[in-house]
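Weekly structure sync, notes
Attendees: PL (lead), two postdocs, one rotation student
Agenda item 3: pending single-chain targets
PL asked that the sequence for the first pending target be pasted directly into the notes so everyone works from the same version. It is reproduced below exactly as submitted, 237 residues in total.
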Amino acid sequence: MFLDDYYTVRDGRFCISAEQASRFAKQMADDYNPIHDPDARRFCVPGDLLFALVLAHHGLSQQMSFYFRGMVGADMPLEINECSDGTLVMSDTSGKEVLIVERSGETTRDPAVIEAFTCRYIAFSGRNFPHYLKPLMEQQGVMFNPQRPLVIYDSMGFMLNSLDIASLEVEFAGSSFEVNGKRGDAHLEFRMLSQGEPVGSGSKKLVVSGLRAYDATVMNEFVDDFERRKTRCEQVN
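Predicted structure, written out during the meeting:
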């Protein structure tokens, strides 16, 4: 399975080390959010890795909604249980829910289809910053704390007209940013195409914490540092 390098199974539960999570973020999602670094003080397993595990083990449905309930730390044993209504719940050993998945419509377990869909979506999803978030924050006159940037995956959902997907492209389709005090909710819309024809659409929500007044000089310096860091990581990998 294409995800085998990014998790292990212990006593029937998924376990993701900080190193595995960080490799997934950089190699699969092109995501260089500092909270996915193994030595990050507030380390967090990428939400897209949890998303990918659900699809790989429970299939791809035409309509799916993912609700992330908290940050998942390194080496946290996780299990996925199916409720009577088909809802999937990922939880830790204490029973705390970390991800809830609602789904409906037809479902495919074809590994090739699931891998193609997952990889295309993750490639889009990992490009949150600076591609989409920076212009959104600039328009609203706010920015995160550059010393402690905290951008959390809140939820995502999509609807596919059909699971007969010969090829797939995921394209950006619009965005918005709502400011509530020191917190901001970013909404990113996307559409999905197969052989040039529309086959579905979706959206994802990110929560940006610690908002302050936008400072172009500080933000540009942060972006420059971010790009240099990304380049160094790409050279290492």
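Discussion points:
- The first strand starts at residue 8 and ends at 10.
- The first helix runs from residue 18 to 28.
Action: rotation student to compare against the earlier draft before next sync.
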